[in-house]
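Morning F.,

Quick status update on the modeling queue. The single chain you submitted on Monday has been processed. Sequence for confirmation:
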Amino acid sequence: MSAGIHISPDTIRGRFSAAMSAMYRDEVPAYGTLMDLVAGVNDETLAADPAERARLEEVDDLARISEERHGAIRLGTAEELHIMRRLFAVMGMHPVGYYDLSEAGVPVHSTAFRPVGAEALKRNPFRVFTSLLRLDLIEDDSLRAEAARLLSGRRIFTRGCLDLIERAEAQGGLTDAEAGRFVTEALETFRWQPHANVGHDMYRRLHDAHRLIADVVSFKGPHINHLTPRTLDIDKVQARMPARGITPKAVVEGPPTRKCPILLRQTSFKALEEPVLFRAGEDWQEGSHTARFGEIEQRSVALTPKGRALYDRLLSQTRRRCRPAADGSNASEYMAALTEAFAAFPDDWASLRAEGLAYFTYAPTEKGLAAGAGGKDLETLIAQGALRYDPIIYEDFLPVSAAGIFQSNLGDDAAQDFAASPSQRRFEADLGAAVLNEFDHYAAIQSASLDASLKALDGLAA
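C-alpha cells below.
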C-alpha cells in the first residue's frame, strides 16, 4: 500500500479490537475460556436453527457475531474524556447515548463509543462503554479535592498516541504504517498497570467512598475492566460456565428469556482480586485490587420509546417486588418475579412491529419484486409477502443492567445512594461534542429501509 494512502477507520478499528482482545486474553486468562465457550454455544445454536442461520446470512449479520466485542473504561477528568473522543474518532467510533448511572448508585455518567453506519457495523461492531467519574458526588470535601489533585497529575495517553491523533485529524486519516503505530500506542492507555498512584491509606479512603472511585483515581490509566463477546444463547452459556471452572453471577441482567428476545441480556464472572503495589515513600507496599471481570452479552431487537417505556415499567415493577441480591440468595425469586412481570410484553415479532414497540428494517422479497407490488400500503405488502421485516439489533446499553453487573461483582455495598443527577449538557461540554440520540438513530435506519423498499417495489410496478 502506498505510504500516502489512508486506510479505512473500519480497518483500524478491526485491528485495535483484535489487539485489545489478545492483550486482555493474556491479562485475564478466564476471558479466553469464555471466548471458547461462547464460540461453541453459537455454533450449536446456529446448527439447531437453520432458519435463524439463513436469516442472519440474509441480513449480513452472521459474520459480525464472532468478531463482536464491547469493552468498558472509566475516566477521571474532562480532558481525558475529550481526548478519548478524538482517539475513538480515528477508528470511526462516535458517542451514542447518554447514561446517568447515579440513579443506579454508581457515581459516573457515560456514553458508548461505537460505529453507527450499517456497513461499519458489519465490518466490525466494536464498542466501548466509557464513563466519567462524577467528583461532585463525593461528599467528603477534602477527599474530593485530593482525588481531583491526583487525577490532574496523571497522563493516560502516550506522546506517540497524541501525535498520531493530531496527524489523523490534520490529514483526514492514517496510512497503513501510521495505523499500525497508532494501535500500538493507543493500546497502552488500556493496559493493566499494577503500580498504584497512591498509598494504601489513600486507597482505603477512596475505596470506602465508593469502590469505583478507588478504581479510577488510584491508577495510572483507565485499564479495560472487561471485554465482552456476543452469544446467541446466554442461558446456555450461563449454565455451562461452572463446568469450565468459571462461577457466573447469580442472575442474567436484563429481560427474561423470551421467544423473541429484546434489548440486551448480560452475565459475568466475579471480578478478579489482583496484586497491586501501593506507594510507600520510596518503596512499594503489596496489596490487592478488585475490578476486572469477564462478561457475556446477548443482543436482540432495539425498542422504540414506547417499547422502552414498557420495558422500564416492568423492570421497575419487578424490582419493587424483589431486588436481586449480589450473593444470589434470592435469584430464583427474582427470576420468577421478572418472568411474571414481562408476561405483559408481547412476545411475537408481528405484535412487536404492529404495536410500535420495536424497530425493524424492511426489504422487498423476491416475490414482491417479481410481482411488481408497488403502490400498496405497508400492511398489505407485508400480508401478501411482498415485503419482509427483520429486527434491528440493539447496539447500546442499559444503565440498570450495567450497575447490576458491577454490584454482583463487587458486593452489595458497591451500589450506594446518590441523588439521581443527570447532566447531559455538562457531559457533552466535557466531551466536546453532542452524543447521538439512539432512538433517533434507530428510527432513521427503519425509515430509510422502508423508503428504499417502497421505491424498489414502485419502480418495478410503474
